[in-house]
Specification:
Elements lengths: L2 E2 L11 E3 L7 E3 L3 E4 L6 E4 L11 E2 L19 H15 L4 H21 L4 H19 L1 H28 L9 H6 L6 H38 L24
Antiparallel strand pairs: 1-4, 2-3, 3-6, 4-5
Helix pairs in contact: 1-2, 2-3, 3-4, 3-6, 4-6
Keywords: Membrane, Transmembrane, Transmembrane helix
Pfam family, one: DUF1353
Protein name: DUF1353 domain-containing protein
């Protein structure tokens, strides 16, 4: 198995503690070790208490709660996500932004490798890699990172326009869908990230919108029920986070 304990035995369970009991974060109770098959490097995610917080703390896969129906925040991706959380903190602590960006690029690659070794399907693993990589460019890429993300947004619009043109003017309108591919070429080794983000958003965007719309309707109904019954309507916005004022315990 690619993931191990400190003593080299296979990682057959992940020990986590939800602390406090109503929080949206978990403490890692036992260190997790990963051996990268490409480089042979040994990576380690420490247990809580080994280093100052937030080391040793995880939210598992950082999937927005509204999208859990599409990609779960836990499962085969749990161990890679815990390791990636730790590696992201290590990169963020580097004093040089360029060094942090380079470190994250390698760590994001390791994340994808670990996902595949854990049996996460190829498309899902690639999408998860793309979104953590987008976060990397946002946090450490500076102005160039913003340009990259803006290009992704324009690429999605180009693909949508291509579909609209194809409906109106025939199949030749789809030629515009190749524009993001051509525009990505000057980015060199970063081009695959732009392409995955652009075309995945273009293809799955409608599904995401439908998912979010359903969540909004449900949250509105929840808020109305809370308001009518004298509860706290604001508590439905982030259901995994406990209200700051805990005067009365939440009843099931």
């Amino acid at each position: 198995m690619p993931f191990e304990r400190d003593d080299g035995t296979p990682l057959d369970e992940i020990a986590l503690a939800q602390r406090p009991a109503d929080a949206d974060r978990f403490e890692v109770r036992e260190a997790i070790v990963y051996l990268d098959p490409r480089t042979g490097r040994r990576y380690r995610a420490p247990a809580a208490g080994e280093q100052p917080p937030p080391h040793g703390v995880t939210d598992l896969a950082s999937v927005p709660s509204a999208l859990w129906g599409l990609i779960a925040s836990y499962g085969r991706q749990s161990a890679p996500a815990i390791l990636h959380d730790e590696r992201s903190r290590v990169a963020a602590e580097l004093p040089d932004r360029g060094a942090a960006l380079a470190q994250r690029r390698e760590d994001d690659r390791v994340f994808h490798t670990a996902l595949r070794e854990q049996g996460v399907p190829r498309l899902r693993a690639r999408l998860m890699w793309a979104w953590v990589s987008a976060d990397r460019e946002f946090r450490h890429g500076g102005a160039l990172g913003w340009v990259l993300l803006a290009q992704v947004g324009l690429g999605v619009l180009a693909v949508a326009a291509a579909v609209a043109l194809a409906i109106v003017a025939g199949p030749w309108g789809l030629a515009l869908a190749a524009a993001p591919l051509i525009a990505a070429l000057p980015w060199g080794r970063t081009a695959p990230l732009i392409l995955v983000l652009t075309y995945s958003l273009a293809v799955f965007g409608p599904l995401l919108v439908a998912q979010l719309a359903a969540i909004v309707v449900f949250r509105v109904v929840e808020a109305i029920v809370e308001l009518v019954t004298g509860g706290d309507p604001a508590s439905v916005v982030r259901p995994t986070v406990a209200p700051a004022d805990r005067g009365e315990p939440t009843r099931g």
